[in-house]
């Protein structure tokens, strides 16, 4: 891996990472007259008669707003809207690079729930979808819920759902390899923020029945007081008080907390063939080499690219929005999220393309304990995820398009991924 120096990082980000390109010519008097006045009045009047034509005559159908108040940025915390701008620009880069979705980053200097909602509603006509980013919990839950109820475009808080979707895909395949059933396993989640809550909800939707969630004070149990409504949703009757207690006999551990939170002794107490997703960054709750010192039956993933099974949200949000935008979806449903997870799980079982093996210098890449999730540079992820999301949106009746041809759409996506832009 290359070493990222301060100088290298600052040089890369100098003058920003995104810009605006024209998609139509504007080199003659006639083209200028069509692009602006008087020609521009014609599509304006058409849209006035039918607002759905805004997807036809503007860039709205391929435009996402990346919106943040800067209160929960990466591992940096509450650094404010302006300091968060390089991250939001970066998110826009990933939208474009991986799915050819245009994205504008919008950093808002308002922080109360009602203020953020009012701001997003006011600018929503610009976009085909809104990606909420790095907004602190628990307010992020209410903001997303109320915006999705108020708006007729997809509103998606990636910090919640991205991790849930990718880890669900990994869990599906880990259980397949271990020969276990989701409704019979014990899951321990350490970290009860936006991602932890969303992961727990998605595992329940998958069929999990035994989930123990922990926060900085220990196990979230029914005898705890002053729990917010989101933590209370996961309060269980148990004698377990600490993370160490909870890890006894666990089939899965999901870490969204801090480095070093898990010990080798805890790992030793887990059930046979356990799953460990240690996602604290840059240093996981426990390192894979530490786990290997205790046992060799673990299926493990981290948030890092230098270990197998990287849990990377870039496998989700660009392709989810691609599929949602292409059928002009009004929202992203729970069904669409699960379809994305199942698509990723399915793709991981397919032969790994040679260009991916070359990118990772690993000729042995194949479905197994060290490859339960597709790698970010597998271009087929766009085809599998976007088409699964689009089909589900159409089947569930949240798409604006009147017809949908699944095979034709997959071929359209496959043609897109081998262009220079994608």
Task: Give an account of the 3D structure.
With 422 residues, this protein is an alpha/beta fold. The chain has three domains: 139 residues, Rossmann fold (3-Layer(aba) Sandwich); 141 residues, NAD(P)-binding Rossmann-like Domain (Rossmann fold); 105 residues, Rossmann fold (3-Layer(aba) Sandwich). It is 42% helix and 10% strand. It is built from 18 helices and ten strands. The chain has a six-stranded mixed β-sheet with strand order 7-6-5-8-9-10, with helices on one face. Strands 2-1-3-4 form a four-stranded parallel β-sheet, sandwiched between helices. Helix 5 packs across helix 14. The longest helix is centred in the middle third of the chain and has 21 residues. The two termini are 24 Å apart. The relative contact order is 0.10. The mean pLDDT is 96.
